[in-house]
Amino acid sequence: MEAFKLKTLADLLDASDERVELIDGEIVQRPMARMEHGLAQHRASVELGPFDRPSGPGGWWIASEVSVHYSAHQCPTHDLAGWRKERLPERPRGVVEIVPDWVCEIVSPGHERKDTLTLFLLLQRQQVSYYWLIWPEERSLVAWQLDGGSYRVIASVAAPGPDERKMRIPPFDAVEIDLGYILGD
Fold first, then answer.
1. How many CA atoms lie within 13 A of 92 on its CB side?
2. pLDDT tens-digit profile of 123-138?
3. How far apart are CA 25 and CA 45, in angstroms?
4. Which helix H or strand E contains 104, and what residues bound it?
5. Which helix (H) or strand (E) segment is 14 a member of?
6. 95, CA 20 to 30 Å: which among 15, 107, 128, 162?
7. Count of structural domains, the chain
């Protein structure tokens, strides 16, 4: 019987399929892109665009579909990730080896465990300051902030009504974010 060998970044880079990521030492298929997922990801990126522009509040490198190599057996591809320019003045390139300051995942049906548990625990261990999850089908968002080594909820919105449509959510609380737009109004 052959022992199970944990995969590494080298194995991931050798993979013939580009829609894979390295999670807990396994190369796993990423979910098929759905319209709801793509719209939520695009709209979140649009809403956060001012933070990536010198003319806005600035101060961030924000990217979609970026692979982050956290450790020997962990290299997920995040739907959205951001790094503060004060901490990382030069734009990251390639597979990023520097822990982001913020990650946002769009939860895909059948892959909930990865986003809500596996990545949640990985990002908490890696001290990613903010973690957002968006469920496009349920039109909801939950945002966590690292507090003493553990995440605590800082925002939770489900099917935002008129009073919740625009919110300021850290770390992007310098501007109001239109959650109705992101969540599919």
1. 24
2. 999 999 999 999 999 9
3. 29
4. strand 102-106
5. helix 9-14
6. 107
7. 1
